[in-house]
Amino acid sequence: MYTETHLDLGRTFAVRLMQHLVVPTFVLDATRRVVIWNRACERLTGVGAPEVLGTRDHWRAFYDTPRYCLADTLILGRTEELTRLYDSHTVPSDNTLGLSAENWCVMPRAAKRLYLAIDAGPIFSEDGTLIAVVETLRDMTEQKLAQMALHSLANRDGLTGLANRRAFDTAIVADCQQAQRDTTALSVLLADVDHFKAYNDTHGHQKGDECLRTVAQAIEAQIFRQGDLAARYGGEEFAILLPNVDLAGALQVAERVRAAVEALHLPHGGRPDGGPVTLSIGAASGVPWDGPDILIATADEALYTAKRAGRNRVVGNAVTRPTLVEELYEA
After folding, report:
1. Catalytic annotation, pick one of 81, 210, 236, 255
2. Fewest CB within 10 angstroms: 2, 270, 292, 326, which?
3. Above pLDDT 90, what percent of the chain?
């Protein structure tokens, strides 16, 4: 039979065990105050236990502005905050289970940015009352950086550094779905280097590659908004995705891109008119009710119109939803 003395000894042993764990660990009581901050946690964060014990200031070890840590969300029952707070996470089926999450942490005292895998597990009394939450941390920075590098290699064009065709195809499907849900316009620009075959014939393929890299840099420099995407579509053709941008806005971006490439004054040498390297650009915009194919086809048609009209110019077309009569006729 266990006595109160045995239970006290057990608690003392558990605390000492946590203190000496090689896994960074801290414990919050039911009021979210720090009751254990082990030595591995001190080494990871640069924050000593005396600074945080008895306080709710544990967030200062990981972030530069106040926010909940994973243990806080479990104690408060605020699991709806997880998507906002963490890059990835699990959601428990009930409050007796723990949480797992991953996130970049700025680590102000340690002066380094780390990607941490975090687990938070509740501790209950015999009557089912929550008495504490244990949070453990694992430094996953090297693995995350390696994963990001592999993802970049898989989605970047090796020659120009822009997104590749695969990344563009994935992005336009997602952007179309979002535009349909929000009933907002999505714009696509297709740009083609004018007389590029003649440029290669004149200067050789190595110079041709240098030309494409330079043009790609000029295009990327004109894409300012987060969420926009510039990609190498294939050969000497480039594509730009502009979510929530109507045709007027798309034409402005297209003209800015066209002018930026012309301003490079790259000698062409193979153009019949003796001019520099330029772009022809086709723009398409509208709510993509029928998915990406109609947007791309419309932009491609506008691009060829620009080429037939003399190149080094922008042409745009709107994409509209078919009327009920047109849909019935097509059916």
Report:
1. 236
2. 2
3. 75
pLDDT band at 206 (very low <50, low <70, confident <90, very high): very high
**Lookup: tokens for 109:** 């005292």
Here the tokens at position 317 are 């077309």
Question: What is the reported pTM?
Answer: 0.61
pLDDT digits (tens, 9 = 90+) for 90-106: 876 665 678 999 999 99
Backbone angles phi, psi at 2, to 5 degrees: -85, 135
Quickly count: other Cβ atoms within 10 Å of residue 291's Cβ. 13
Distance of alpha carbon 46 from alpha carbon 107, whole angstroms: 8
Specify whether 102 is catalytic. Answer: no
Report the alpha-carbon distance of residue 119 to residue 258 in Å, rounded.
51
* Spatial separation of the C-alpha atoms in residues 87 and 71, rounded to whole Å: 16
Residue ranges of domains in the chain, CATH in brackets: 4-145 (3.30.450.20), 156-330 (3.30.70.270)
What order of strands is seen across the sheet that includes strand 25-29? 34-37, 25-29, 130-139, 114-124, 99-105, 88-89
DSSP code string of 177-245 = HHHHHHT--EEEEEEEETTHHHHHHHH-HHHHHHHHHHHHHHHHTT--SBTBEEEEEETTEEEEEEET-
